[in-house]
Amino acid sequence: MGTHTTDSPDPANPTKPLPTPATPAGRDGLAALLARPRTAVIGLDFDGTLAPIVADPEQARAHPEAVPVLAALAPKVASVAVITGRPADVAVRNGGFAGVPGLEHLTVLGHYGAERWDAATGTITAPPPHPGVAEVRAELPGLLDRAGAWQGTWIEEKGRAVAVHTRRAEDPQAAFEALREPLTELATRHGLIVEPGRMVLELRPPGMDKGVALSDHLRRTGAESVLYAGDDLGDLPAFAAVDKLRADRVPGLLVCSGSSEVTELAARADLVVDGPAGVVDLLRRLAAQLD
Question: pTM score, two decimals?
């Protein structure tokens, strides 16, 4: 699939024309969103899409202009949904989404949709955690030590999942590749799956991914069109869900928050933008077009 990269973000001129998607399906998706915004859903990944990637995920924060732009856009569409592998409360906190006027139509789907936070109520709903997560958490330090990959790798507690990061290792890619097989074996033994990402391997329960979460949210809202933006391998299921919807004549636009670390999404996207700043600029222009 061809792609198109937006020009440089220009916060001083939000009324600049929207970029043209490179594919007919993407152009149809954008046209449908512009024609009927009240029945459109904007789906967004968090890390790498709304928030720049940083060495310590606990320090990740939404782009400084993300919340004001979302507050301008959300009242004009059916819903804005942030879909993330993080716990919902962490994404809400790191995004600065709580108590913001204009974000009443915002939903955060944490843990790939297992947790749901609605801005209108400020409450989280979620099922009980999978028991395999606690079992894996207990075994992980010993596994990393035996694998000789402890130096520079670290474990992120995610409540309903656990992740092993290699970005701080001496050779991040080598550590990532060395750990894929043993972590997959550990996850399988406890009924979990491994989700690879940008120098991170996440062990989580099966059955939920961003595609399932997005599709369920679209059904809940009765959406007639969708824009989804992501940056990593975990966003591929959401891209696939939009492709399926388009085959069923529900228009959609696929946006890649571009990086040099992951190229698969760029190859699948209708539009490639320059990281979180590019995503925010695109949403700013979109909000301006809907005035």
Answer: 0.79
Question: What is residue 140's DSSP assignment?
Answer: H
pLDDT in tens, the chain (291 residues): 544 555 555 555 656 799 999 999 999 999 999 999 999 999 999 999 999 988 887 888 999 999 999 999 999 999 999 999 899 999 999 999 999 999 999 999 998 999 999 999 999 998 888 899 999 999 998 888 877 656 788 898 888 889 999 988 888 899 999 899 999 999 999 999 998 988 899 998 888 899 999 999 999 999 999 999 999 988 999 999 999 999 999 999 999 998 666 678 999 999 999 999 999 999 999 999 997
Q: Give me the sign of the Cα torsion angle 47, 56, 189, 89.
A: negative
**Measuring CA to CA, how many Å separate 87 from each of 52, 82, 93, 125, 172?**
18, 12, 10, 11, 25
CA–CA separation, 75 and 48 (whole Å): 24
Q: How many residues does the chain have?
A: 291
Place of tokens 């790498």: 48
Q: Cβ atoms within 10 A of the Cβ of 279, count?
A: 29
Going by their DSSP bridges, the two strands 193-197 and 252-257 should be labelled as unpaired
Residues facing residue 253 across a β-bridge: 227
State how far the Cα of 103 lies from the Cα of 72, in Å rounded to an integer.
8
